[in-house]
Q: What sequence folds into this?
Protein backbone atom coordinates (compact mmCIF):
# COMPACT_ATOMS: atom_id res chain seq x y z
CA UNK A 1 0.00 0.00 0.00
CA UNK A 2 1.45 3.39 -0.92
CA UNK A 3 1.90 6.15 1.65
CA UNK A 4 -1.17 7.93 0.34
CA UNK A 5 -3.38 4.89 0.32
CA UNK A 6 -2.27 4.07 3.82
CA UNK A 7 -2.98 7.60 5.06
CA UNK A 8 -6.40 7.45 3.58
CA UNK A 9 -7.08 4.04 5.06
CA UNK A 10 -6.22 5.10 8.58
CA UNK A 11 -7.54 8.63 8.32
CA UNK A 12 -10.21 9.03 5.67
CA UNK A 13 -11.25 12.49 4.51
CA UNK A 14 -14.40 13.94 6.12
CA UNK A 15 -17.74 12.34 5.28
CA UNK A 16 -19.08 13.13 1.88
CA UNK A 17 -22.47 14.27 3.11
CA UNK A 18 -21.15 17.74 3.64
CA UNK A 19 -19.42 17.50 0.32
CA UNK A 20 -22.51 17.36 -1.85
CA UNK A 21 -22.82 21.12 -1.81
CA UNK A 22 -19.18 21.45 -2.74
CA UNK A 23 -19.52 19.11 -5.68
CA UNK A 24 -22.48 21.08 -6.94
CA UNK A 25 -20.43 24.24 -6.93
CA UNK A 26 -17.55 22.58 -8.72
CA UNK A 27 -19.79 21.20 -11.42
CA UNK A 28 -21.53 24.48 -12.04
CA UNK A 29 -18.17 26.20 -12.36
CA UNK A 30 -17.04 23.58 -14.82
CA UNK A 31 -20.14 24.12 -16.91
CA UNK A 32 -19.31 27.78 -16.98
CA UNK A 33 -15.79 27.05 -18.12
CA UNK A 34 -17.00 24.67 -20.78
CA UNK A 35 -19.55 27.04 -22.22
CA UNK A 36 -17.45 30.17 -22.06
CA UNK A 37 -14.43 28.51 -23.58
CA UNK A 38 -15.96 26.16 -26.11
CA UNK A 39 -13.88 26.09 -29.22
CA UNK A 40 -10.56 25.99 -27.44
CA UNK A 41 -11.81 23.21 -25.17
CA UNK A 42 -11.49 20.40 -27.70
CA UNK A 43 -9.45 18.56 -25.11
CA UNK A 44 -11.77 19.73 -22.39
CA UNK A 45 -9.28 21.01 -19.90
CA UNK A 46 -7.19 22.56 -22.65
CA UNK A 47 -8.09 26.14 -21.87
CA UNK A 48 -4.81 26.83 -20.19
CA UNK A 49 -2.77 24.00 -21.53
CA UNK A 50 0.22 25.16 -23.48
CA UNK A 51 -1.11 28.62 -23.85
CA UNK A 52 2.63 29.00 -23.94
CA UNK A 53 2.58 31.16 -26.97
CA UNK A 54 0.31 33.66 -25.29
CA UNK A 55 2.41 33.71 -22.15
CA UNK A 56 5.58 33.88 -24.17
CA UNK A 57 4.69 36.63 -26.52
CA UNK A 58 3.51 38.76 -23.62
CA UNK A 59 6.81 38.09 -21.95
CA UNK A 60 9.44 37.75 -24.67
CA UNK A 61 12.33 37.08 -22.41
CA UNK A 62 15.99 36.68 -23.38
CA UNK A 63 15.83 33.36 -21.52
CA UNK A 64 13.70 31.82 -24.23
CA UNK A 65 16.28 32.22 -26.94
CA UNK A 66 19.00 30.78 -24.71
CA UNK A 67 17.03 27.62 -23.95
CA UNK A 68 18.71 24.74 -25.81
CA UNK A 69 17.97 21.32 -24.32
CA UNK A 70 20.34 18.53 -25.35
CA UNK A 71 19.46 16.57 -28.49
CA UNK A 72 18.89 12.82 -28.61
CA UNK A 73 16.73 10.17 -30.24
CA UNK A 74 13.94 9.31 -27.80
CA UNK A 75 13.71 5.82 -26.35
CA UNK A 76 10.56 3.71 -26.55
CA UNK A 77 8.64 2.76 -23.42
CA UNK A 78 9.47 -0.69 -22.08
CA UNK A 79 8.99 -2.96 -19.07
CA UNK A 80 12.54 -4.34 -18.88
CA UNK A 81 14.38 -4.82 -15.61
CA UNK A 82 17.18 -2.46 -16.52
CA UNK A 83 17.88 1.16 -17.37
CA UNK A 84 17.42 2.20 -21.00
CA UNK A 85 19.03 5.37 -22.36
CA UNK A 86 19.16 6.70 -25.94
CA UNK A 87 21.64 5.52 -28.51
CA UNK A 88 24.89 7.43 -28.05
CA UNK A 89 24.61 7.43 -24.24
CA UNK A 90 25.78 5.00 -21.58
CA UNK A 91 25.21 4.48 -17.87
CA UNK A 92 26.62 2.66 -14.88
CA UNK A 93 25.76 2.20 -11.22
CA UNK A 94 27.67 4.53 -8.89
CA UNK A 95 26.35 3.37 -5.53
CA UNK A 96 23.48 1.37 -4.06
CA UNK A 97 21.62 0.99 -0.80
CA UNK A 98 23.88 -0.85 1.66
CA UNK A 99 27.21 0.09 0.05
CA UNK A 100 29.62 0.97 2.89
CA UNK A 101 31.00 4.52 3.14
CA UNK A 102 33.84 3.58 5.45
CA UNK A 103 36.34 0.72 5.23
CA UNK A 104 35.21 -0.69 8.57
CA UNK A 105 31.72 -1.16 7.11
CA UNK A 106 30.69 -4.57 5.79
CA UNK A 107 29.83 -5.12 2.14
CA UNK A 108 26.10 -5.51 1.48
CA UNK A 109 24.93 -8.91 2.69
CA UNK A 110 22.40 -10.44 0.30
CA UNK A 111 21.12 -12.85 2.94
CA UNK A 112 20.65 -10.67 6.02
CA UNK A 113 20.43 -7.33 4.16
CA UNK A 114 22.72 -5.93 6.83
CA UNK A 115 22.55 -5.05 10.50
CA UNK A 116 22.02 -1.80 12.38
CA UNK A 117 25.76 -1.31 12.53
CA UNK A 118 26.47 -2.09 8.88
CA UNK A 119 23.54 0.09 7.80
CA UNK A 120 24.75 3.05 9.86
CA UNK A 121 28.06 2.85 7.99
CA UNK A 122 26.39 2.49 4.59
CA UNK A 123 24.17 4.30 2.11
CA UNK A 124 20.52 4.34 3.18
CA UNK A 125 17.56 2.87 1.32
CA UNK A 126 15.33 4.54 -1.27
CA UNK A 127 17.53 7.12 -2.95
CA UNK A 128 15.50 10.29 -3.52
CA UNK A 129 16.38 13.98 -3.98
CA UNK A 130 20.08 14.53 -4.58
CA UNK A 131 22.38 17.55 -4.75
CA UNK A 132 26.09 17.61 -5.53
CA UNK A 133 28.62 19.98 -3.98
CA UNK A 134 32.13 20.76 -5.20
CA UNK A 135 35.18 21.84 -3.28
CA UNK A 136 38.76 21.97 -4.50
CA UNK A 137 38.05 19.50 -7.28
CA UNK A 138 36.24 17.11 -4.97
CA UNK A 139 32.66 15.96 -5.60
CA UNK A 140 30.35 15.42 -2.62
CA UNK A 141 26.89 13.89 -3.02
CA UNK A 142 24.13 14.62 -0.51
CA UNK A 143 21.16 12.34 -1.07
CA UNK A 144 17.93 11.65 0.76
CA UNK A 145 16.98 8.12 1.78
CA UNK A 146 13.25 8.51 1.79
CA UNK A 147 11.97 5.37 3.48
CA UNK A 148 12.68 1.68 3.82
CA UNK A 149 11.22 -1.03 1.64
CA UNK A 150 10.17 -3.15 4.61
CA UNK A 151 9.78 -6.49 2.84
CA UNK A 152 13.21 -6.06 1.23
CA UNK A 153 15.13 -4.58 4.19
CA UNK A 154 13.62 -7.20 6.49
CA UNK A 155 13.61 -9.95 3.88
CA UNK A 156 15.51 -12.06 6.42
CA UNK A 157 12.28 -12.16 8.49
CA UNK A 158 9.28 -14.21 7.42
CA UNK A 159 7.04 -11.28 8.39
CA UNK A 160 9.06 -8.86 6.25
CA UNK A 161 8.85 -6.48 9.21
CA UNK A 162 11.16 -5.40 12.02
CA UNK A 163 10.80 -8.07 14.72
CA UNK A 164 13.23 -6.96 17.41
CA UNK A 165 15.40 -4.10 18.58
CA UNK A 166 18.19 -4.98 16.15
CA UNK A 167 15.78 -4.85 13.23
CA UNK A 168 14.49 -1.51 14.49
CA UNK A 169 18.06 -0.25 14.61
CA UNK A 170 18.66 -1.30 11.00
CA UNK A 171 15.34 0.17 9.93
CA UNK A 172 16.15 3.57 11.45
CA UNK A 173 19.61 3.58 9.92
CA UNK A 174 18.18 2.94 6.44
CA UNK A 175 16.43 6.34 6.69
CA UNK A 176 17.68 9.90 6.61
CA UNK A 177 20.46 11.39 4.52
CA UNK A 178 23.69 9.97 3.05
CA UNK A 179 26.58 12.29 2.28
CA UNK A 180 29.65 10.93 0.53
CA UNK A 181 32.45 11.84 -1.81
CA UNK A 182 32.64 10.26 -5.26
CA UNK A 183 35.38 10.32 -7.85
CA UNK A 184 35.83 9.17 -11.41
CA UNK A 185 38.24 6.34 -12.27
CA UNK A 186 38.64 5.22 -15.89
CA UNK A 187 35.29 6.73 -16.73
CA UNK A 188 33.49 5.13 -13.78
CA UNK A 189 32.27 7.09 -10.78
CA UNK A 190 32.72 5.40 -7.40
CA UNK A 191 32.37 6.13 -3.70
CA UNK A 192 35.50 7.41 -1.92
CA UNK A 193 35.47 5.33 1.24
CA UNK A 194 36.64 7.10 4.41
CA UNK A 195 36.46 10.54 2.82
CA UNK A 196 36.32 13.21 5.54
CA UNK A 197 33.03 14.33 3.94
CA UNK A 198 31.29 10.98 4.36
CA UNK A 199 28.44 11.23 6.82
CA UNK A 200 25.18 9.49 7.67
CA UNK A 201 22.33 11.39 9.26
CA UNK A 202 19.53 9.20 10.54
CA UNK A 203 16.79 9.12 13.12
CA UNK A 204 18.88 9.89 16.22
CA UNK A 205 21.00 12.75 14.86
CA UNK A 206 20.77 15.96 16.96
CA UNK A 207 19.12 18.69 14.90
CA UNK A 208 18.52 22.24 16.04
CA UNK A 209 15.04 23.75 15.79
CA UNK A 210 15.17 27.31 14.45
CA UNK A 211 12.66 29.91 13.31
CA UNK A 212 9.26 30.87 14.75
CA UNK A 213 8.48 27.47 16.32
CA UNK A 214 11.76 27.30 18.24
CA UNK A 215 11.09 27.05 21.97
CA UNK A 216 7.30 27.02 21.59
CA UNK A 217 5.37 24.84 24.04
CA UNK A 218 4.10 22.72 21.15
CA UNK A 219 7.73 21.78 20.41
CA UNK A 220 8.61 20.64 23.94
CA UNK A 221 8.75 17.00 24.95
CA UNK A 222 9.49 15.16 28.20
CA UNK A 223 13.01 14.41 27.09
CA UNK A 224 13.71 17.85 25.60
CA UNK A 225 11.88 20.51 27.55
CA UNK A 226 13.19 23.56 25.70
CA UNK A 227 11.79 22.86 22.25
CA UNK A 228 15.09 23.77 20.60
CA UNK A 229 16.80 20.46 19.84
CA UNK A 230 15.26 17.42 18.24
CA UNK A 231 16.56 14.05 17.20
CA UNK A 232 16.68 12.90 13.65
CA UNK A 233 15.09 13.37 10.29
CA UNK A 234 13.16 10.76 8.34
CA UNK A 235 11.11 10.34 5.21
CA UNK A 236 13.37 12.82 3.48
CA UNK A 237 11.96 13.24 0.00
CA UNK A 238 13.02 16.00 -2.38
CA UNK A 239 15.88 18.43 -1.93
CA UNK A 240 17.07 21.92 -2.65
CA UNK A 241 20.24 23.93 -2.33
CA UNK A 242 21.20 27.46 -1.47
CA UNK A 243 23.69 29.81 -3.11
CA UNK A 244 25.50 29.90 0.24
CA UNK A 245 26.40 26.25 -0.21
CA UNK A 246 23.94 24.38 1.97
CA UNK A 247 21.72 21.37 1.30
CA UNK A 248 17.97 21.42 1.92
CA UNK A 249 16.34 18.10 2.80
CA UNK A 250 12.57 17.89 2.96
CA UNK A 251 10.61 15.76 5.44
CA UNK A 252 7.56 14.34 3.70
CA UNK A 253 5.46 11.45 5.06
CA UNK A 254 6.81 11.81 8.60
CA UNK A 255 3.48 10.87 10.15
CA UNK A 256 3.58 7.18 9.44
CA UNK A 257 6.20 6.46 12.05
CA UNK A 258 4.08 7.37 15.07
CA UNK A 259 1.61 5.19 16.93
CA UNK A 260 -0.26 5.22 20.23
CA UNK A 261 -1.12 2.73 22.95
CA UNK A 262 -4.43 4.48 23.29
CA UNK A 263 -6.28 3.26 20.21
CA UNK A 264 -9.50 4.86 21.36
CA UNK A 265 -8.07 8.32 21.89
CA UNK A 266 -9.96 10.91 19.93
CA UNK A 267 -7.70 12.55 17.43
CA UNK A 268 -7.22 16.29 17.53
CA UNK A 269 -7.97 18.20 14.33
CA UNK A 270 -4.22 18.87 14.08
CA UNK A 271 -3.38 15.15 14.26
CA UNK A 272 -6.08 14.41 11.71
CA UNK A 273 -4.91 17.04 9.29
CA UNK A 274 -1.38 15.64 9.40
CA UNK A 275 -2.41 11.97 9.38
CA UNK A 276 -1.07 11.16 12.85
CA UNK A 277 -2.87 7.97 13.79
CA UNK A 278 -2.79 5.52 16.74
CA UNK A 279 -2.12 2.65 14.34
CA UNK A 280 1.39 1.49 13.65
CA UNK A 281 2.07 1.33 9.94
CA UNK A 282 4.55 -1.52 10.07
CA UNK A 283 7.67 0.44 11.00
CA UNK A 284 7.12 -0.34 14.66
CA UNK A 285 9.20 2.59 15.90
CA UNK A 286 6.82 3.29 18.78
CA UNK A 287 7.37 -0.21 20.06
CA UNK A 288 11.08 0.35 20.56
CA UNK A 289 11.35 4.08 21.25
CA UNK A 290 8.66 5.82 23.25
CA UNK A 291 9.18 9.16 21.60
CA UNK A 292 7.24 7.68 18.69
CA UNK A 293 4.31 6.85 20.99
CA UNK A 294 2.00 9.83 20.78
CA UNK A 295 0.22 8.98 24.05
CA UNK A 296 3.58 9.45 25.79
CA UNK A 297 5.08 12.22 23.66
CA UNK A 298 2.15 14.06 22.06
CA UNK A 299 4.36 16.90 20.78
CA UNK A 300 6.96 14.73 19.07
CA UNK A 301 5.05 14.78 15.73
CA UNK A 302 5.17 18.61 15.85
CA UNK A 303 8.95 18.33 15.57
CA UNK A 304 8.84 16.62 12.17
CA UNK A 305 7.60 17.75 8.76
CA UNK A 306 10.10 20.52 8.12
CA UNK A 307 12.88 21.51 5.77
CA UNK A 308 16.29 20.61 7.20
CA UNK A 309 19.28 22.75 6.19
CA UNK A 310 22.85 21.51 6.55
CA UNK A 311 26.31 22.15 5.18
CA UNK A 312 27.54 18.95 3.51
CA UNK A 313 31.09 20.31 3.34
CA UNK A 314 31.21 20.77 7.15
CA UNK A 315 30.73 17.20 8.40
CA UNK A 316 30.60 18.27 12.06
CA UNK A 317 28.01 20.98 11.57
CA UNK A 318 24.64 20.77 13.31
CA UNK A 319 21.72 20.44 10.86
CA UNK A 320 18.80 22.82 11.40
CA UNK A 321 15.06 22.43 11.01
CA UNK A 322 13.91 25.72 9.46
CA UNK A 323 10.40 26.06 10.86
CA UNK A 324 9.81 29.37 9.05
CA UNK A 325 9.37 27.26 5.90
CA UNK A 326 6.32 25.62 7.43
CA UNK A 327 5.29 22.13 8.41
CA UNK A 328 3.62 19.87 5.92
CA UNK A 329 4.49 16.90 3.74
CA UNK A 330 7.38 18.71 2.14
CA UNK A 331 8.31 17.49 -1.32
CA UNK A 332 11.28 19.69 -2.24
CA UNK A 333 12.48 23.23 -1.66
CA UNK A 334 13.40 25.19 -4.80
CA UNK A 335 15.26 28.31 -3.79
CA UNK A 336 15.72 31.27 -6.11
CA UNK A 337 17.12 34.69 -5.36
CA UNK A 338 14.68 37.39 -6.41
CA UNK A 339 16.01 40.46 -8.19
CA UNK A 340 15.94 42.42 -4.93
CA UNK A 341 18.06 39.78 -3.19
CA UNK A 342 15.34 38.05 -1.20
CA UNK A 343 15.50 34.27 -0.99
CA UNK A 344 12.29 32.78 -2.34
CA UNK A 345 11.65 29.10 -1.64
CA UNK A 346 8.91 27.27 -3.55
CA UNK A 347 7.55 24.16 -1.84
CA UNK A 348 4.85 21.59 -2.57
CA UNK A 349 2.82 19.70 0.03
CA UNK A 350 2.36 16.26 -1.49
CA UNK A 351 -1.02 15.07 -0.42
CA UNK A 352 -4.32 15.05 -2.25
CA UNK A 353 -5.91 18.47 -2.07
CA UNK A 354 -3.06 20.15 -0.18
CA UNK A 355 -1.31 23.36 -1.20
CA UNK A 356 1.61 24.93 -2.99
CA UNK A 357 3.69 27.29 -0.80
CA UNK A 358 6.27 30.02 -1.05
CA UNK A 359 8.60 31.48 1.56
CA UNK A 360 10.10 34.94 1.04
CA UNK A 361 13.00 35.87 3.31
CA UNK A 362 12.95 39.14 5.22
CA UNK A 363 16.66 39.64 4.66
CA UNK A 364 18.60 39.84 1.40
CA UNK A 365 21.12 37.36 0.13
CA UNK A 366 24.57 38.91 -0.29
CA UNK A 367 27.38 36.85 -1.71
CA UNK A 368 29.90 38.19 0.77
CA UNK A 369 27.62 38.35 3.81
CA UNK A 370 26.70 35.72 6.38
CA UNK A 371 23.53 34.17 4.97
CA UNK A 372 23.43 31.31 7.45
CA UNK A 373 20.10 32.24 9.03
CA UNK A 374 18.35 33.79 6.06
CA UNK A 375 15.71 31.04 6.14
CA UNK A 376 14.66 31.79 9.72
CA UNK A 377 12.78 35.03 9.17
CA UNK A 378 10.35 35.84 6.41
CA UNK A 379 6.83 35.37 5.15
CA UNK A 380 5.03 32.23 4.17
CA UNK A 381 2.39 32.20 1.43
CA UNK A 382 0.03 29.66 -0.14
CA UNK A 383 -0.93 29.83 -3.80
CA UNK A 384 -4.34 30.73 -5.13
CA UNK A 385 -4.90 29.96 -8.81
CA UNK A 386 -7.76 31.67 -10.61
CA UNK A 387 -9.51 30.07 -13.56
CA UNK A 388 -8.61 33.01 -15.79
CA UNK A 389 -4.90 32.19 -15.74
CA UNK A 390 -4.01 34.65 -13.00
CA UNK A 391 -2.98 33.81 -9.47
CA UNK A 392 -1.77 35.28 -6.24
CA UNK A 393 0.24 34.33 -3.20
CA UNK A 394 -1.88 34.55 -0.05
CA UNK A 395 0.16 35.55 2.99
CA UNK A 396 -0.14 33.37 6.08
CA UNK A 397 -0.04 35.98 8.83
CA UNK A 398 -1.44 36.23 12.37
CA UNK A 399 -3.87 38.88 11.07
CA UNK A 400 -5.50 36.74 8.41
CA UNK A 401 -5.26 33.34 10.11
CA UNK A 402 -5.84 34.18 13.79
CA UNK A 403 -2.81 32.03 14.55
CA UNK A 404 0.53 33.05 16.04
CA UNK A 405 3.66 32.86 13.88
CA UNK A 406 4.73 29.73 15.75
CA UNK A 407 1.33 28.11 15.18
CA UNK A 408 1.48 29.02 11.48
CA UNK A 409 4.89 27.34 11.30
CA UNK A 410 3.67 24.19 13.04
CA UNK A 411 0.15 23.86 11.60
CA UNK A 412 0.79 25.43 8.23
CA UNK A 413 -1.89 23.40 6.45
CA UNK A 414 -4.53 24.77 8.78
CA UNK A 415 -3.33 28.34 8.18
CA UNK A 416 -3.45 27.86 4.41
CA UNK A 417 -6.99 26.47 4.63
CA UNK A 418 -8.04 29.59 6.51
CA UNK A 419 -6.90 31.93 3.75
CA UNK A 420 -8.58 29.93 0.99
CA UNK A 421 -5.59 28.69 -0.97
CA UNK A 422 -6.21 26.40 -3.98
CA UNK A 423 -6.36 22.70 -3.18
CA UNK A 424 -3.96 21.01 -5.59
CA UNK A 425 -3.48 17.61 -7.23
CA UNK A 426 -0.58 16.57 -4.96
CA UNK A 427 2.19 19.13 -5.56
CA UNK A 428 5.52 17.34 -5.94
CA UNK A 429 8.79 18.95 -7.07
CA UNK A 430 9.03 22.59 -8.03
CA UNK A 431 11.79 23.66 -10.42
CA UNK A 432 12.67 27.24 -11.33
CA UNK A 433 14.05 28.06 -14.76
CA UNK A 434 17.62 29.36 -14.36
CA UNK A 435 17.30 31.35 -17.60
CA UNK A 436 14.17 33.32 -16.82
CA UNK A 437 11.74 34.11 -14.02
CA UNK A 438 9.32 31.20 -14.10
CA UNK A 439 8.72 28.05 -12.09
CA UNK A 440 7.10 24.67 -12.69
CA UNK A 441 5.47 22.17 -10.34
CA UNK A 442 4.49 18.55 -10.92
CA UNK A 443 0.93 17.82 -9.83
CA UNK A 444 1.35 14.11 -9.81
CA UNK A 445 -2.26 12.79 -9.74
CA UNK A 446 -5.32 12.95 -7.51
CA UNK A 447 -8.04 10.36 -7.74
CA UNK A 448 -10.12 12.46 -5.32
CA UNK A 449 -10.26 15.57 -7.47
CA UNK A 450 -13.85 16.63 -7.69
CA UNK A 451 -14.83 13.68 -5.49
CA UNK A 452 -13.60 14.28 -1.94
CA UNK A 453 -12.34 17.20 0.11
CA UNK A 454 -8.84 17.24 1.58
CA UNK A 455 -8.21 16.15 5.16
CA UNK A 456 -9.10 19.61 6.39
CA UNK A 457 -12.50 19.50 4.67
CA UNK A 458 -11.53 21.97 1.93
CA UNK A 459 -13.32 21.31 -1.32
CA UNK A 460 -11.39 20.10 -4.34
CA UNK A 461 -13.40 21.48 -7.25
CA UNK A 462 -12.41 20.68 -10.81
CA UNK A 463 -10.85 23.73 -12.41
CA UNK A 464 -7.81 25.95 -12.67
CA UNK A 465 -4.57 23.97 -12.73
CA UNK A 466 -6.47 20.88 -11.51
CA UNK A 467 -8.81 20.49 -14.46
CA UNK A 468 -9.68 16.79 -14.41
CA UNK A 469 -12.03 14.93 -12.13
CA UNK A 470 -10.36 11.78 -10.70
CA UNK A 471 -7.02 12.81 -12.09
CA UNK A 472 -5.10 9.61 -12.87
CA UNK A 473 -2.30 10.96 -15.03
CA UNK A 474 -1.09 14.24 -13.53
CA UNK A 475 0.03 17.56 -15.04
CA UNK A 476 2.73 20.20 -14.74
CA UNK A 477 1.69 23.74 -13.88
CA UNK A 478 3.98 26.71 -14.45
CA UNK A 479 3.79 30.30 -13.38
CA UNK A 480 5.50 33.53 -14.29
CA UNK A 481 5.72 35.98 -11.40
CA UNK A 482 4.42 39.47 -12.13
CA UNK A 483 7.12 41.72 -13.60
CA UNK A 484 9.53 38.80 -13.45
CA UNK A 485 9.96 39.24 -9.68
CA UNK A 486 9.82 35.98 -7.75
CA UNK A 487 8.72 37.85 -4.62
CA UNK A 488 5.76 39.52 -6.40
CA UNK A 489 2.29 38.81 -5.04
CA UNK A 490 0.70 38.05 -8.42
CA UNK A 491 1.54 35.61 -11.19
CA UNK A 492 0.14 34.21 -14.40
CA UNK A 493 -0.01 30.49 -14.98
CA UNK A 494 -0.73 27.78 -17.50
CA UNK A 495 -0.24 24.04 -17.78
CA UNK A 496 2.99 23.01 -19.48
CA UNK A 497 1.61 19.53 -19.99
CA UNK A 498 -1.47 17.53 -19.11
CA UNK A 499 -0.31 13.91 -19.08
CA UNK A 500 -2.68 11.38 -20.57
CA UNK A 501 -2.98 8.39 -22.82
CA UNK A 502 -4.07 9.05 -26.41
CA UNK A 503 -3.77 5.31 -27.10
CA UNK A 504 -6.62 4.63 -24.71
CA UNK A 505 -8.68 7.82 -24.72
CA UNK A 506 -9.76 9.60 -27.84
CA UNK A 507 -10.61 13.26 -27.84
CA UNK A 508 -11.15 13.86 -24.18
CA UNK A 509 -9.22 15.27 -21.25
CA UNK A 510 -7.54 11.95 -20.56
CA UNK A 511 -5.84 11.91 -23.96
CA UNK A 512 -3.57 14.61 -22.55
CA UNK A 513 -2.46 17.94 -23.96
CA UNK A 514 -1.23 18.44 -27.50
CA UNK A 515 2.40 17.83 -26.57
CA UNK A 516 1.50 14.26 -25.56
CA UNK A 517 1.50 11.57 -28.24
CA UNK A 518 1.62 7.78 -28.29
CA UNK A 519 5.42 8.14 -28.37
CA UNK A 520 6.01 10.10 -25.16
CA UNK A 521 3.22 9.00 -22.83
CA UNK A 522 3.83 8.86 -19.11
CA UNK A 523 1.86 9.22 -15.89
CA UNK A 524 2.43 10.81 -12.50
CA UNK A 525 5.18 13.40 -13.04
CA UNK A 526 7.08 13.84 -9.77
CA UNK A 527 10.78 14.79 -9.93
CA UNK A 528 11.50 18.01 -11.84
CA UNK A 529 14.87 19.59 -12.56
CA UNK A 530 16.16 22.30 -14.83
CA UNK A 531 19.59 21.88 -16.35
CA UNK A 532 21.88 24.79 -17.16
CA UNK A 533 20.67 24.89 -20.79
CA UNK A 534 17.06 25.41 -19.76
CA UNK A 535 16.07 21.77 -20.36
CA UNK A 536 13.33 20.54 -18.02
CA UNK A 537 13.87 16.98 -16.83
CA UNK A 538 10.66 15.24 -15.77
CA UNK A 539 10.80 12.08 -13.65
CA UNK A 540 7.86 9.82 -12.98
CA UNK A 541 6.56 7.91 -9.97
CA UNK A 542 3.48 6.33 -11.38
CA UNK A 543 1.63 3.24 -12.33
CA UNK A 544 4.02 0.86 -14.15
CA UNK A 545 1.48 -1.90 -14.88
CA UNK A 546 1.51 -1.01 -18.60
CA UNK A 547 -2.14 -2.02 -18.61
CA UNK A 548 -5.56 -0.44 -18.91
CA UNK A 549 -5.34 3.32 -18.78
CA UNK A 550 -1.56 3.00 -18.43
CA UNK A 551 -1.16 0.80 -21.50
CA UNK A 552 1.96 1.64 -23.48
CA UNK A 553 3.62 3.67 -20.72
CA UNK A 554 5.91 0.90 -19.45
CA UNK A 555 8.12 1.46 -16.44
CA UNK A 556 8.72 4.77 -14.73
CA UNK A 557 10.85 7.09 -16.79
CA UNK A 558 12.63 10.37 -17.27
CA UNK A 559 11.79 12.79 -20.08
CA UNK A 560 13.27 16.06 -21.27
CA UNK A 561 10.94 18.98 -21.90
CA UNK A 562 11.58 22.03 -24.04
CA UNK A 563 9.78 24.82 -22.21
CA UNK A 564 9.71 27.06 -25.27
CA UNK A 565 8.32 24.65 -27.87
CA UNK A 566 6.51 22.35 -25.45
CA UNK A 567 8.20 19.31 -26.93
CA UNK A 568 8.71 16.39 -24.51
CA UNK A 569 11.02 13.46 -25.32
CA UNK A 570 11.60 10.28 -23.35
CA UNK A 571 15.27 10.01 -22.36
CA UNK A 572 15.31 7.09 -19.94
CA UNK A 573 13.24 4.12 -18.82
CA UNK A 574 13.90 2.69 -15.36
CA UNK A 575 13.92 -0.93 -14.19
CA UNK A 576 10.85 -2.78 -12.99
CA UNK A 577 8.77 -1.34 -10.16
CA UNK A 578 11.18 1.55 -9.65
CA UNK A 579 10.56 5.27 -9.48
CA UNK A 580 13.05 7.61 -11.12
CA UNK A 581 13.86 10.47 -8.76
CA UNK A 582 16.68 12.87 -8.02
CA UNK A 583 19.06 14.37 -10.57
CA UNK A 584 22.36 16.23 -10.34
CA UNK A 585 25.27 17.02 -12.63
CA UNK A 586 29.04 16.62 -12.27
CA UNK A 587 31.13 19.80 -12.13
CA UNK A 588 32.02 19.49 -15.83
CA UNK A 589 28.36 18.64 -16.58
CA UNK A 590 29.45 15.61 -18.60
CA UNK A 591 27.76 13.26 -16.14
CA UNK A 592 24.11 13.28 -15.16
CA UNK A 593 23.44 11.39 -11.92
CA UNK A 594 19.97 9.96 -11.47
CA UNK A 595 18.29 8.05 -8.64
CA UNK A 596 16.51 4.72 -9.08
CA UNK A 597 14.17 4.25 -6.14
CA UNK A 598 12.42 1.10 -4.91
CA UNK A 599 13.14 -1.29 -7.81
CA UNK A 600 11.25 -4.51 -7.10
CA UNK A 601 8.96 -3.00 -4.49
CA UNK A 602 6.47 -5.70 -5.46
CA UNK A 603 9.29 -8.27 -5.67
CA UNK A 604 9.58 -8.23 -9.45
CA UNK A 605 13.10 -6.85 -9.91
CA UNK A 606 16.68 -7.76 -9.19
CA UNK A 607 18.13 -4.42 -10.26
CA UNK A 608 21.02 -3.70 -10.34
CA UNK A 609 22.88 -6.86 -9.36
CA UNK A 610 21.03 -9.29 -11.61
CA UNK A 611 19.07 -12.51 -11.51
CA UNK A 612 18.29 -13.79 -8.04
CA UNK A 613 19.81 -10.83 -6.23
CA UNK A 614 18.10 -8.46 -3.80
CA UNK A 615 16.88 -5.33 -5.63
CA UNK A 616 18.63 -2.18 -4.41
CA UNK A 617 17.85 1.47 -4.84
CA UNK A 618 20.81 3.03 -6.66
CA UNK A 619 22.39 6.14 -8.09
CA UNK A 620 23.40 5.80 -11.72
CA UNK A 621 25.75 7.97 -13.80
CA UNK A 622 24.81 8.76 -17.40
CA UNK A 623 27.18 10.15 -20.01
CA UNK A 624 27.25 10.81 -23.75
CA UNK A 625 29.55 8.53 -25.77
CA UNK A 626 31.10 11.59 -27.39
CA UNK A 627 31.72 13.19 -23.99
CA UNK A 628 29.43 16.15 -24.56
CA UNK A 629 27.66 17.91 -21.72
CA UNK A 630 24.50 16.42 -20.29
CA UNK A 631 22.66 19.69 -19.81
FE1 LIG B 1 8.43 11.54 -1.76
FE2 LIG B 1 5.94 13.16 -2.93
O1 LIG B 1 7.36 12.12 -3.13
CA1 LIG C 1 8.52 12.54 -5.08
CA1 LIG D 1 5.26 10.58 -6.00
CA1 LIG E 1 9.13 7.92 -3.60
A:
Amino acid sequence: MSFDEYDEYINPPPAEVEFDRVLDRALSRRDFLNSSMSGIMCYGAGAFVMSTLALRSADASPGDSQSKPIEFTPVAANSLDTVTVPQGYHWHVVASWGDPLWSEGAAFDQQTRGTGESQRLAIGDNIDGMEIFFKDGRTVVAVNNEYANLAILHGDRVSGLPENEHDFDKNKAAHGISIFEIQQHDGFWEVVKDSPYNRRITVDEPIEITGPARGHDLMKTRSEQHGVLTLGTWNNCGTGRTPWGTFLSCEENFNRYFSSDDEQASLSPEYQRYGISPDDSGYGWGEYDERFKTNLEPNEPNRAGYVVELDPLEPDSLPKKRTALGRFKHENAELVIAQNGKAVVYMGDDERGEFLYRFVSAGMYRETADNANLLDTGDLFAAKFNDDGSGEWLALTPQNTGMTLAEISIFTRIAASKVGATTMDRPEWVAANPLKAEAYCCLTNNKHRGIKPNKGGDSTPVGGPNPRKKNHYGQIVRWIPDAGQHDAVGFSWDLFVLAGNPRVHKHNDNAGSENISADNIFNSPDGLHFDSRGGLWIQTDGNYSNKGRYEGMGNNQMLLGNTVTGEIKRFLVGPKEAEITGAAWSEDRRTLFVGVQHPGEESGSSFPDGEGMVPRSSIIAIGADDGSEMG
